Amino acid sequence: MAMRLFLSFLFRLTLVLFLLDSAYAQALRVGFYKNSCPDAEAIVRKTVASYFSQDPTVSGPLLRLHFHDCFVRGCDGSVLLNSTKTTSAEKDAMPNHSLDGFYVIDAAKEALEKACPGIVSCADIIALAARDAVSLATGSVGKETRTAGNYVWEVPTGRRDGIVSMASEALANLPSPYAEITQLKASFAAKGLSAKDLAILSGAHTIGNSHCYSFESRLYNFTGRGDTDPTLDPKYAIKLRSQCKPGDETTTVEMVPGSSTTFDTKYYKLVMKRRGLFHSDEALLQDKETIDYVYSRLDSPKSSFFFDFGVSMVKMGRIGVLTGKAGEIRKQCALVNS
Ligand code: HEM
Ligand SMILES: *[C@@H]1O[C@H](CO)[C@@H](O)[C@H](O)[C@H]1NC(C)=O
Ligand SMILES: *[C@@H]1O[C@H](CO)[C@@H](O)[C@H](O)[C@H]1NC(C)=O
Ligand SMILES: *[C@@H]1O[C@H](CO)[C@@H](O)[C@H](O)[C@H]1NC(C)=O
């Protein structure tokens, strides 16, 4: 009797462990490539570092790619896919969101395919490259001496690549720079991200550049009556108008003047002064939770923002991921395997 009970207990325990194990197999985890491709993270880091040392402005596009990947169909590398004869891909959405940095992802992929063919997904490369770009842009870590502990955050990996990319989904899922706080919160909530995540992740705009056309109407024709966005500091509007003439398609402006390649908390100081480039940046001042986060940056150390940013990035990096046997590991990031 005791033996039967024990056996039944053992059976149940085995079942539970098996179920737990398969549940975990479906989840992302730090060090997913430890055995299958031990140098995976080092290869991505080396690639990003080599481009960064030639041109530190590469960090902005790399960080933004991860956001655009995750918000459209989950973090499945769909942002990297080229359009086909029959479908227009995310990167060709109108406007195509001036995405950049694809060549860095492609270079990392090429090196990874040499080291361990068919193992590392393009979606994971984007996630790792975003982390490495931010870590390099903090400027506080040496390029060669960095160990995993020096990263701003650890990236759970194990994403697989999707096979679909649609321009229409990019338009539908990415928030507009003219969005109000309620729209921004709703857009983030639809991805399982909170108002606090919104305030934290908007801090990404502490690095990078924007085309004039992304905020032009704030300067010249905000409501269609030749007016300026009242949430923009009027003095700053004068400065921006001198940099961005109406109809300018090519000029870019630093998100944070003089500091667009340094990852820090200056963005929040600008937003407080109503000098964020986008209406969506100023919108953070329209909600209790987001304004609290913005103002709390004044008397918090940079490290507390870095910590928060890492936590929110890991959360963003889990949106709609494909794991286990779903999707595929692309051979080339711009093409699905045939
Ligand atoms: C909250 C909603 C957001 C809106 C409305 C928004 C909008 C934009 C726009 C319009 C640009 C300028 C594109 C151009 O004209 O070149 C931009 C740039 C950028 N965004 Fe966002 N963004 C948002 C959230 C995020 C998030 C969550 C991240 C990353 C975690 C991010 C990272 C970046 C970066 C790094 C750049 C600079 C890109 C470069 O230097 O080329 N953004 N964003
Ligand atoms: C994807 O499209 C870009 C731009 O049209 C092109 O330069 C690139 O060669 C394409 N990639 C592949 C793998 O076909
Ligand atoms: C976005 O569109 C412009 C103009 O059509 C094109 O020059 C640019 O290469 C496109 N960018 C991407 C990433 O496809
Ligand atoms: C401002 O916007 C209105 C409404 O969209 C438009 O009719 C008008 O032509 C615009 N003015 C300028 C100077 O672009």
UniProtKB/TrEMBL annotation:
Substrate binds at P175. The record marks R64 as: Transition state stabilizer. It catalyses: 2 a phenolic donor + H2O2 = 2 a phenolic radical donor + 2 H2O. It holds the Pfam family peroxidase. GO terms for molecular function: heme binding; lactoperoxidase activity; metal ion binding. One of its GO terms (biological process) is response to oxidative stress. Residues 27-337 form the Plant heme peroxidase family profile domain. Its EC number is 1.11.1.7. Binds 2 calcium ions per subunit. Keywords: Calcium, Disulfide bond, Glycoprotein, Heme, Hydrogen peroxide, Iron, Metal-binding, Oxidoreductase, Peroxidase, Secreted, Signal. Removal of H(2)O(2), oxidation of toxic reductants, biosynthesis and degradation of lignin, suberization, auxin catabolism, response to environmental stresses such as wounding, pathogen attack and oxidative stress. These functions might be dependent on each isozyme/isoform in each plant tissue. This is Peroxidase. It comes from Phoenix dactylifera (Date palm). The gene is LOC103717698.
